[in-house]
Amino acid sequence: MKKILSLCLASFALIACSSSQNKSKTSANADVYAKTITQSELKEMLYTYASDEFEGRATGEPGQKKAIEFIKDHYVANGIPSPIADGDYFQDIPASYFKKGVKASENVLAYIKGSEKPDEIIVISAHLDHIGVSGNGDINNGADDDGSGTVAIMEIAEAFKKAADKGFGPKRSILFLHVTAEEIGLYGSKYYADVDPVFPLANTVANLNIDMIGRVDPKHEGNENYLYLIGADKLSKELHDISEAVNKEHTKIDFDYTYNDENDPNRFYYRSDHYNFAKNNIPVIFYFNGTHADYHKPSDTPDKIRYDLLETRARLVFYTAWELANRENRLKLD
Question: The whole model's pTM is what?
Answer without folding.
Answer: 0.93
